[in-house]
UniProtKB/TrEMBL annotation:
Location of the Protein kinase domain: 1-233
Catalytic reaction equation(s): L-threonyl-[protein] + ATP = O-phospho-L-threonyl-[protein] + ADP + H(+); L-seryl-[protein] + ATP = O-phospho-L-seryl-[protein] + ADP + H(+)
Family label: Belongs to the protein kinase superfamily.
InterPro entries: Kinase-like_dom_sf, MAPK, Prot_kinase_dom, Protein_kinase_ATP_BS, Ser/Thr_kinase_AS
Highest taxon above the source species: Eukaryota
Binding-site list for ATP: 42
GO terms, molecular function: ATP binding; cyclin-dependent protein serine/threonine kinase activity
Pfam family, one: Pkinase
Main EC class the enzyme belongs to: transferase
EC number: 2.7.11.22
Protein name: cyclin-dependent kinase
Keyword set, alphabetical order: ATP-binding, Kinase, Nucleotide-binding, Serine/threonine-protein kinase, Transferase
PROSITE patterns with a match to the protein in the record: PROTEIN_KINASE_ATP, PROTEIN_KINASE_DOM, PROTEIN_KINASE_ST
Amino acid sequence: MALDAKSEPNRSYAYITAIGEGTYGAVWRCKQLDTGRFVAVKCFKAAHTEPLIKNLALREVRMLRSLDHPAIVPLLDAFRSASGRVYLVTHRDIKPANVLLDVSGGVKLCDLGYARSFSCGVRGSEAMSPYVVTRWYRSPEVLAGCEYGPAADIWALGCTLAELATGAPLFPGISSADQLWRIMRCVGSLPAGQLARVAADPRLGKVLRAPLHGRSLWQRLSGVDPGLLQRLE
């Protein structure tokens, strides 16, 4: 159900319009009354009633407060309304996607609800859930259920860049098995450890019995700038 920003106490922010809405919340364009600047206010729909969503909201607040980088959306404020809903206030002119462009063309990363701090070593990797990122951008090690780390973000970034360059998703799988099949048809077989995990998973093992010959990355992205293709590889 869509949230009604006008019915919520605005706590120094004047509602202007809705920007977007997702599974766990909505984003509104608002005006900060004491400064006059335009900001994006993110409201978590049920953080006041659902423990899972509350944990996501708190994690995103902690993560954003710990980060200070020009390519990450800054957290300006976080508060609860009288109804108990949780709000985050981030930078101006935000758009309903996780990779944004600001007015000067700078790239900003947003929506860190699923972000985790990462420390080298097995312990840090094992603490991370396999349910991360939209399926189309999951790396092979995540799909196979293996340990993973920052390289999974690099994979997702590559898929995002390819989509920006072509206007279409690179691997639009309809299931985890289909996602792996599409990846392997394009980039080839997986490392031995990942193949072993796939073979042992009854949901994924059928991928190894399917024909894997397909177009290479260069063939699929033949119209893309060669410099970008080299980076994607």
